[in-house]
Every structure is written in structure tokens, then in C-alpha cells.
Amino acid sequence: MKYRFFFLFLFSFLLYAETRNVKTHIENPSYGSSSRFQVIQNDDTGEQEKEQEEPVQNKTQNEEAHKRIFDSQKINESKSLSVQEFLESKGFLVMTSGGAGSASQLSYKGYTSFCIKVYVDGILANNSTAGEFDWNSIDINTIEKIEIEDTPALSDTEFAGCIVRITTKNFQDKLIIDTGVSSYQKNLFDTWYAKAFYAKSFEKFKFNLGTSLLSAENEFEKTSNLGTNLDNFSRQGNAHFGWNVRLSDNTSLSGKNSFNYNNLKTYNSGSSLNNGIETDISTFNNVKFSYQSLTVKSDTDFLFNFANVEYINSRLTSNIDNTGFFKTGISENIKWLCDFTAAINFEWLSYNPSSNRITANLGAGKKFQIGKFSIEPQLATLIWFNQNFGIRLLPRLTMSFEGLSLSFFRECTLPTFNQLYWPKTSYASGNPTLNSEDGWSAFLGFKRDDFPLWAQYKFSYYGNKICWTSQNGKLIPANSADGIYNVVTLGIEQNFFDSILKVSLDATYTSARLCSTFKQIMWVPEWQAHAGICINVWRIIFNADYSFTGRRWASNENVFFYPEFHLLDITLTARCTDSVQAYLKVNNLLDQKIAWHDSYYIPSRKFTIGIKIEK
Predict the structure, then answer these.
(1) Distance separating alpha carbons of residues 329 and 343, to the nearest angstrom
(2) What is the number of domains present in the chain?
(3) What is the pTM of this model?
């Protein structure tokens, strides 16, 4: 392992010499200690309409050193069937509690679950109950761009881990239909899905519509002594509507509305339909008013989100849990003499009106360009009210030159509602007096379009972390741990033979140590690596994507560990016409049946055949 980075650098140097003239689960306290291995949310607004994006002047290579950007072409080339699958090919560890339609927990450089903040069209989409994003709620066919960011933007007042920014497709005339069937080993294509997207533009009004349906049985093979995973079905449906009205030459009104439904049998809950049935319902609504002149750009967002989880512990005894979460807020982003952001949000739980929180943020920043050198100071403030009142000043500084970027910033995340307001039971209880988690980070990155090697290093001291600890026989969350993260990533991306062959390689080393013992944090692999190739010849496209995940300690004591595993996915696509594609995909070709953690196993080999129409 210690020679991997050397070989990556050597390979990238040879490529450069050759091509230098070419620009080429709902959080469960019974899981025990884990925080920052779970963290939470915030708000932001982004530029949604391409026709309103302000022109970028004097853009240099170094601006993207802290982020990786994947447009719709790169997303399509990956032949991923879901957002989770695409992110898995970009260095994320994706852990599912079952098969298709099941809940997914993602880990990125040691940061898991609600450490990963997901913004959809500029608005935070994480649910503050568990702090996580529902990865099943968005169809990858509706996405125009995905950005993975290792440093916070001005309006990201809560940050620890990374940001995933998703921009959905704009309003250019388009029709997409994608349908297929999947089958795990020893089953005959018992999973089917159908997806559709339509967009239409008129002179002053534009809209798009999207829907997706999934019916999955998820009967996959486990290791030989555990047999077949049964009774883990999912019945899922999503719908969304986007619109834009041009009010004048300088103003517009736009919005996004989505509805998500998932009825599923939860993992390891037995075969009875009287227990272990979960129904998730959520809606996401945003209205944006935009103004833009030659000197000023302003975006005002209004949002309302709702999510409800019904879990049947026992239908026979009417032991049914319902958790309803509401969030409403308003935010303002202005670009004038400097960048300015402000927002206020109100969140509450339906079953307990006193379980609520108000958050507000205010920030300003300005970028100064001196030749090829740039420096950008920012100062943001986060204020919150629940049973506690708190305020955090969040200074940030970024300097860039010729593809090299250096950032210093403060991290801060608020407790989830599960940590604050978990109902008092015989085994656990929430803690409404919890404080925020805080840390200080430094990021160093290098990336240039004319050099195939990219590199990132991040150091983070993160304290006051929330862990579920045993107190008088109950699990109660407390700010009780500190950790130090050192993460190094090296990657290569290169095209050959006029883009007939595309290659991407990357490797990550993560040292995530508890300050009290200096032992690796549970479930965090020290080593991860990825390799992907795409071969495009005539009307045939072949994709192969390999990922390696090293061993993960089963507990913070570092006594027992889960073994390493190797995942290989391949896809063969035939372009039947300019608008019709047929594809065959095999997930987990090597048929790895390893536990991610606890009794959650990687689904066995899966086959998918489908057809996609796009015009």
C-alpha cells in the first residue's frame, strides 16, 4: 500500500509527458458510539437557471482544486443506474440495508451519513431528524451536474465532511424514458423500474416533469451459512415538477416541487408482514425569485419540506411509530460589491411541538484577484435556538495560484433531532441540552486541466463530538469525544485516442483517530482505491468500474475488524439509434459477500437489462 501513491504519481507524470500539448437507516442509538461518523444540515441557494448564471471572468485552473465537477455527459458515460452507484465510482463507500429501494448510508473519507450535506438546486435536502439525505428520492436521469466539494461555500454554515451539490436538468426541450429489469443470483428478474423525464420551453414559461417507479424483491444471496436474504421488498414512486416564469428582462420566478413514497420491508425483520414494515413519505418545495442586472445578482428562496416515517414494530399490538418532520425557511444570496448570504429556518416534529429549532445564518466574503494569484476571505455566523442558544463565528480563508489551492476554515455541525429529542424509552433517550460539534480544518489541493494528476490533503481537528453513551442503563447522547483526521487522496484522469478510451484512477488514505486512544474510528477504512475505464467504439460502449475498500474496525477498541472487499461493476451499452440505447449491467461481478458492518451484507451479483430513449 505504501507504494501506491508513488506509482500513481509516476504514471501521471508519464501521461503528462505523453500528452502535454493536448488540453485535454434512521439513526438508532443502539448502534452505540458514532458521531461525526454522523453529522447534519444547513441551507444554501445556488444558480439554478443557466440563462441567469453570471459570466465568469479571469477564471483560472486553481478555482476547482477543492471540488470535482461531473456534468451530464460524464454522468451518462458512467452508465450508473442511481446517484449512489455514481458516487460509489467517485470514492464514496455506499452501504445499503438491503437491495434496490433500501436505505443507503454513504461514507466519504471517513465521514459518513449526515456528515455528507446534499444540496439539490441550491437547497439543502437532508432531513434533520436523522440528518441524512434520502438517496432514493432523486432519479439520476434528471441530474445535469454533480459537484463534490471538500471545503464549505459561504452559505454552508454547517460543514464537516463534504458537500454534494446536485443540479437538476434545465428546461431545454427533452424527453427521457428509461426502463429495465434486474435479478440477483437464483432469481428470475424480480425487480423492475421505469423512469421518465420531459421538459418543454415556451417564450416566457418553461417546465419539466419527472417520475420514477420501482418494484424490488431484493432476494439476494448471502454467505453460504446465512442463505438467501428474503422479504426485503421495496415499492417506490417519485414525482417532481419544475417551472420557470420570465417576469421581465431582469427578473424571473422559478420553483421545484417533488413527492417521494417508499413502502419497504426492513432488513433482518423476518418474513411476517405484521412487523418491520416502513413507509416513507416526503415532499420538497422551493420557490425562487431572481433578479439580475449588469452589476447585481439576487436570489431569494422560500422553502417548505415535510417528511414522515411510519414504522410498524407490531401490527397485532398496534405498536406503530410515526415521525413527522417539518421545515420552512427563507434565504437570500446577493452578488454585488461582495458576496452576501442570509437565511432563517424553522424546524419541528409533529408529535411534539416543543421539539423544534430555529437557525439563522449571516455571511459575507469577497474574492481578490492579483494576476494568477487569488485570495478570498469569508466570515459567516451561525445562530440557533432550541432548549439551548448558541452562536458560532466561522472564519474562512482560501488562497489559490496556478492550480494549487490552500484553505483554512472552521467546522461546525448541530445535533440531529434524533440526538436532541429521541423519545424516552426503556433503552434510550434524547438530550435537548446537546451543544454543537466544532473543529478546525486545513485543506490543500492541486488540480489543472493540462495535467492528469490531481491531489488533495485535509487535516481536521474535530471536537465536542456527539456519541451515544450508557448512563444508568440507558443510551443517551453526549458531547464526549474528539478526533483528528488526516486524509490524502491522489487521482488521475486521462483520455486516449481521441476519447475512445477514458481512464480514471484514485486512492485515498484516511487516518481517523480518537484523541483519547489514538485508535482508528470504527467502520472507517484506512485504504480505499478506485479504477474506472470507458471504451467507446462505434456504437458500443464498455464500462468497467473497480473499487477496493480496506478493513474496517468493528468498534473503537480496534480488536476485531471486517475484511477488505473488491467490487467490480461492468456495463455494455449498444446505441441502436441516435436516441435509443440498450444496456446490460452486472453489479458485484466478483460476487463479494462481505459484511459492511454488523449484519449488513453486500448484495450478491446482480444482472440488469434495460433500454433508454433520449431525444
Answers:
(1) 7
(2) 1
(3) 0.85
